């Protein structure tokens, strides 16, 4: 892509606060963006070939939304964690194996999508994020859900299409968790904590495509309590 095209995009971004350049085969984060660190609220560089997010990303202190879906990122810089106003971070379809240690400092984060990466566990850093609503960790290589999940503040947690065979009973202590998606994993019925049914806030549990028949779930103790929550929530959204 020529310089003049990029220049035009930069001029628009300066006025609108939005820089969107998707599907252009970019191999790196456009350095010229650093001229707009105080303007930009939204950056979308999805469907490119970016391998590295430079440390300068930490300078976009007013950024609310960052999307880098379908790139070639293998890691994220610690500087990303300085974005105190960031509410939406979408990084689906990359090669990420872990999150930066300071990820819990993204205190405004509401929506996090990491579908289609190479995560092996639910990152413990997520437990510190107080405003998190939706976390999408589907299509990773997660095998177990650790105890730290009990501190997760999310309303919806999507763990579909992983390799999960173990879930900490702490998941039923998540204070705001209403929707838990566990479709197409490796769960035996005995490995699903019954407290999810009998003693949690969860009102939508999606478990199709595991190592048990759904009708067996209905025989578990606490299923009727779960159904009460499920029905009450359905009425609310109907």
Automatic annotation (TrEMBL):
One GO location term (cellular component): cytoplasm
Keywords, in A-Z order: Leucine-rich repeat, Repeat
Pfam families referenced in this protein's UniProt entry, alphabetically: LRR_1, LRR_8
Top-level taxon of origin: Eukaryota
Cited InterPro entries: Leu-rich_rpt (IPR001611), Leu-rich_rpt_typical-subtyp (IPR003591), LRR_dom_sf (IPR032675), LRR_domain-containing (IPR050216)
PANTHER family in the record: LEUCINE-RICH REPEAT-CONTAINING PROTEIN 57 (PTHR48051:SF62), PTHR48051
Protein name per UniProt: Leucine-rich repeat-containing protein 57
Gene (name only): Lrrc57
């Amino acid at each position: 892509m020529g310089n003049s095209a990029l220049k035009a995009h930069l001029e628009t971004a300066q006025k609108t606060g939005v820089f969107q350049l998707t599907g252009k085969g970019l191999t790196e984060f456009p350095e010229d963006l650093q001229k707009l660190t105080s303007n930009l609220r939204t950056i979308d560089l999805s469907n490119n070939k970016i391998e590295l997010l430079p440390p300068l990303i930490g300078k976009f202190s007013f950024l609310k939304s960052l999307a880098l879906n379908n790139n070639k990122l293998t890691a994220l810089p610690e500087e990303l964690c300085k974005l105190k106003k960031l509410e939406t971070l979408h990084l689906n379809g990359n090669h990420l194996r872990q999150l930066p240690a300071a990820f819990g400092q993204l205190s405004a984060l509401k929506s996090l999508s990491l579908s289609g990466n190479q995560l092996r566990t639910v990152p413990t850093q997520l437990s510190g994020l107080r405003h998190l609503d939706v976390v999408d960790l589907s299509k990773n290589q997660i095998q177990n859900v650790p105890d730290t999940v009990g501190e997760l503040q999310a309303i919806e947690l999507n763990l579909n299409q992983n390799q999960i065979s173990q879930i900490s009973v702490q998941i039923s202590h998540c204070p705001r968790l209403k929707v838990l998606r566990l479709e197409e994993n490796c769960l035996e019925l005995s490995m699903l904590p019954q407290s999810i049914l009998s003693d949690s806030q969860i009102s939508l549990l999606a478990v199709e495509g595991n190592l048990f028949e759904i009708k067996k779930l209905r025989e578990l103790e606490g299923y009727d309590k779960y159904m009460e929550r499920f029905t009450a929530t359905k009425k609310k959204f109907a």
